[in-house]
Amino acid sequence: MTSAILLTGGTGTLGRLVAPHLRPAATTLRVLSRQARASADGIEYVTGDLTTGEGAAEAVAGVDVIVHCAGTSKGDDVKTRHLVDAATAAGRPHLVYISVVGADRTPVVSGPDRAMFGYVAAKRAAEVIVAESGLPWTTLRATQFHELTLTTARAMARLPVVPAPAGFRIQPIAAAEVAERLAELALAGPAGLVAEMGGPRTYDMKDLLRGYLKATGRRRPVLPVRLPGKAAAAFRAGANLTPGHAVGHRTWEDFLAGRTVPA
Ligand SMILES: NC(=O)c1ccc[n+]([C@@H]2O[C@H](COP(=O)([O-])OP(=O)(O)OC[C@H]3O[C@@H](n4cnc5c(N)ncnc54)[C@H](OP(=O)(O)O)[C@@H]3O)[C@@H](O)[C@H]2O)c1
Fold first, then answer.
1. 3 lines ligand 1 (CB under 6 A)
2. pTM for this one?
């Protein structure tokens, strides 16, 4: 089936990896970005900002499928609301959304929860907006990408003492593997909430950080810090993990070593 496809977040870590899978099947592949970009590599760029809704109507015009990968640490609910409103006015495109494992299991209630876990709450709110949009939809939840894990580890490793949220574990996955699945879902029919995707192994945060420090030749103490609040308690209980769906093939060690792993 060929379709006109809008990819939001197509300039980001995940979206850049989704685009090549969509291109062969798309009559038009359009990417929405906040920056003006010249069309290239079979991609038509439109300028817009989902936080304000500017450019959303132009972005969704005439598309059959929207793959919604635009996201930041804040306000993914607002961005998704603007996209859904524009898509609804334009027709009935299939909306494919990427969310995070644990979005439905992480209660974000208090001030400290909001400060640390507002991202997860916004992802959950965005999931609900998608499901209640009246559009045909598919939502995939994935665990944290290796790419983000590396960015976090690098930032932490610069500190003289490296704080590690006590009792937190992560199950990182290669963004490329999530991208392939997301594109497959986009090119199939609407499926609602599909089986989530997690990486092949689970790591205690402090062990992962110690491993990273060792691998990069740094000597720093890692200090476990107990985070307050219900959301942190949910993470300590494993809300962000999906051991029953450890479907990723590329481990964190493979990623750090630059190894590609066949599926
Ligand atoms: N990173 C993870 O570990 C992880 C795990 C599970 C799910 N996810 C989800 O996967 C999605 C992509 O994550 P990522 O790591 O690829 O993010 P990323 O590398 O930070 O890229 C973010 C993308 O969102 C676009 N964007 C941001 N704000 C926008 C706005 N106001 N209007 C329009 N576009 C906007 C950016 O486009 P421009 O800068 O070109 O405007 C960029 O393409 C997010 O929804 C995220 O929640 C991420």
1. no
2. 0.97
